[in-house]
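Researcher: I'd like a structural prediction for the single chain below. Treat it as a standalone chain; there are no partners to consider.
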Amino acid sequence: MTNEKSPQQQIDYTLIFILFLLAIVSTLAINSAEATLPEVLKEINFSMKQIQWYIIGSMAIVVTMLIDYDRFKQLAWYLYGFGLLLLLGLEVLPEGIVQTIKGATSWYRLGPLGNFQPSELMKIIMIIVLSKVIADHRETYPNNSVADDFLLIGKLVAVASPPILLLVRQPDMGMTMVLCAIIASLVLISGIKWRIILPVVFSALFAITAFLLLFFKYPELLKIKAYQLDRFYGWLNPYEYSGEQGFQLVKSLMAIGSGQLDGKGYQNLEVYLPEAHTDFIFAIISEQFGFIGGSVVISLFFLLIYRMIHIALESNDPFGSYLCTGVIGMITFQVFQNVGMTIGLLPITGLPLPFVSYGGSSLATYMVAIAFVLNVRSRTRKYMFD
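Model: Treating it as a single chain, here is the predicted structure.
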């Protein structure tokens, strides 16, 4: 017997409230960071533009909620083809249409609307497509034999390889790592046996070690560009390279450390960080509100992820659970990477802090991702004797 409720009655207001709190944190942090921006950028009201993007994202949530998430499963391959075309366009279209920033050709010029990064959209598409592949495979091969698991791995590799290769060519290593995190999170709950997963993990670790060895010893073999090497040198020894490569990390550590326990107070910023309203927004928050403020932000992300895990476990549709898991993997990795790079734990990759850093296309992506989770929750049927 089911406890029937309309989708409107099953909206997860807890998740929406957490999102609302993150929006407040984002607006206040960006508003305070605007005072540190160069004169050219001070003419732009980034905090107001962030609010506008939150409004656009909220509209996207409403639209996505009106459509049963199972419809996206039916459209998965069309979306996948569209996403690949957008990534291929960056390779073949002229410079007047595409834009290169900091050595990466990853954006389309949209005139007054700003720039659009198709890899952001590709993250959502990959979650949908990979979830469909796993759900369809488990429905077709319910016995879950070793041969079935290897077949599933082959399918996932075949689907994930084209967008990853295109991202590597841009090059956009940060977004490549996000896609890998999405794949890893879905593999963990796909039912693939651990005796298959563990050798793959160890092989991946060996490959990463070999890559890093070639990266530092023989960068010419990998056609590594100078700015990519500089990022690693600036991360491993920021104070020795504080003039250029390690400048942002040194300033970030100074800002976070100077905040101490309770911070210097709102808008009381003394450490200069270039364009801190984007990638280094966590350092701005920590300088103003200290360890307590930084902990509150991390706690909000913990509650957000915890709530999404609860929704994923509660769903009685495997495809819905996979969708939620992909979103969880994406957001968890980006939070860990962004906070980790501001404190020197991880190299600087240019990945923003979800829902907090300024950025139109990235914020819209996160909002649509949350919309899928809310969609799954609103259409989950509860059984009285479950």
